[in-house]
Write a structure and sequence with these properties.
alpha+beta, globular, 6 strands, 152 residues
Length: 152
């Protein structure tokens, strides 16, 4: 027994799990420009500053970049409970273009954390809190831990 409250223990575990995942994703996140911001149990936040390398032929952020940002954020939120899983499906609705210099923040929240399935929603907003896109994903869950939890 660590003496931590359950909420503090959940937060510590979520942070440890996502630190491991962010380290494993370091190369792809660096390539895409994705920065991990924070995690709590069932929630995660990542950010991306739109650079010239992210622009498509219309001089707005390529939808695939926004999809990747949302997908990474969703993965961190889903795995914050220390259970492995993988995506089964995902969709995104683009509401507003992200432009050069915009800071896009993705906030993921797990809405279903079942024994064998999960579902999450990710909202992407710019620095003015304008909605850029809404991403929804579902996944399959496995009874296998990502890290060895203290006291397990």
């Amino acid at each position: 027994m660590t003496g931590q409250s359950p909420a503090t223990a959940d937060q510590s575990l979520a942070e440890a799990v996502v630190r491991r995942l962010v380290a494993a994703d370091a190369k792809v996140n660096a390539l895409l420009g994705i920065t991990f911001v924070e995690v709590s149990s069932g929630k995660a936040v990542c950010r991306l500053m739109v650079g010239e390398q992210h622009l498509n032929s219309h001089d707005v952020c390529h939808g695939g970049i926004l999809f990747a940002l949302a997908d990474a954020t969703l993965a961190y939120a889903n795995c914050s409970s220390n259970r492995r899983g993988m995506s089964l499906s995902a969709n995104i609705i683009y509401v507003k273009a992200a432009r050069l210099g915009d800071v896009v923040t993705a906030t993921a929240e797990v809405v279903l954390d079942g024994r064998s399935a999960s579902a999450s929603t990710v909202r992407l907003v710019n620095q003015n809190d304008d909605l850029i896109a809404v991403f929804q994903g579902s996944g399959i869950r496995f009874d296998k831990a990502i890290i060895e939890a203290p006291g397990a």
